[in-house]
């Protein structure tokens, strides 16, 4: 399906639609927005995209994204070396950092175990995780994978591997969001909220 304006416009739509979560209508809104931008802003956007592709790489310690190696979190002396949060993707690090509630270190797996997608443990940064745990610096590993089928399977697999290497293995809590309504919660969410209950 073409946009009906020009081949150039259709090419932009096609490229925008490749982005995650961007459908045809969103791509059209973005394309028209680009058309309205001053030339300097379009060039700045283009340059920022090129710079990200050229300069961003994985951190050699945690495998999050960085321009400097090691990344700012890994090189921050104020972070707690004794607590390591294992997450799926660099975007998960950003989500945890926005809360301001975690001051430990991270380890990014670069995915989850997913046999249907051809992703096995060997495709993830699990060997590097085990290497990080062998020096006895880390006292607690928090498994911060998503609470979906693949995330749970990955957390369980890693948990079994690391129990001999670390004093404490924990899993992020799951359950009802703040402001949520019990009436609209699904059975799995309610069950998780009961299992993850705390004493008050």
Features of the shown structure:
about 200 residues, alpha/beta, Helicase, Ruva Protein, domain 3, Dna Topoisomerase Vi A Subunit, Chain: A, domain 2, 2 domains, four-stranded parallel beta sheet, two-stranded antiparallel sheet, 7 helices, 6 strands
Question: Briefly, what is this?
Answer:
By secondary structure, this protein is α/β, with parallel strands linked by helices. It has 7 helices and 6 strands; from the N terminus they run αααβββαβαβαβα.
How is the topology of this model organized?
Layout: H1 7-17, H2 24-36, H3 39-55, E1 57-58, E2 65-66, E3 80-87, H4 90-99, E4 104-108, H5 126-133, E5 140-143, H6 149-162, E6 168-171, H7 187-195
Question: Which structural class do the helices and strands define?
Answer: alpha/beta
CATH topology of the largest domain: Dna Topoisomerase Vi A Subunit, Chain: A, domain 2
Number of domains: 2
Q: Could you report the average pLDDT, rounded to the nearest whole number?
A: 92
Distance between the termini: 58 Å
Shape annotation: globular
Question: Tell me, what is the CATH class of the largest domain?
Answer: Alpha Beta
What is the gyration radius calculated from CA atoms? 21 Å
């Amino acid at each position: 399906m073409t946009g009906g304006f020009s081949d150039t416009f259709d090419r932009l739509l096609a490229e925008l639609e490749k982005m995650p979560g961007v459908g045809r209508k969103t791509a059209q809104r973005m394309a028209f927005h680009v058309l309205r931008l001053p030339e300097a802003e379009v060039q700045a956007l283009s340059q920022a995209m090129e710079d990200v592709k050229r300069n961003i790489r994985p951190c050699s310690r945690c495998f999050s994204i960085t321009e400097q190696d090691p990344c700012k979190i890994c090189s921050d002396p104020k972070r707690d070396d004794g607590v390591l949060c294992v997450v799926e993707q660099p975007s998960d690090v950003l989500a945890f950092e926005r809360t301001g509630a975690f001051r430990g270190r991270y380890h990014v797996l670069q995915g989850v175990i997913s046999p249907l997608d051809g992703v096995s443990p060997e495709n993830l940064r699990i060997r590097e995780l085990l290497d990080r745990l062998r020096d006895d610096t880390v006292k607690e590993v928090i498994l911060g994978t998503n609470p979906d089928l693949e995330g749970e399977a990955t957390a369980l697999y890693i948990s079994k591997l690391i129990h001999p290497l670390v004093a404490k293995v924990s899993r992020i809590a799951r359950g009802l969001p703040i402001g949520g309504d019990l009436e609209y919660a699904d059975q799995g969410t309610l069950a998780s909220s009961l299992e993850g209950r705390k004493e008050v």
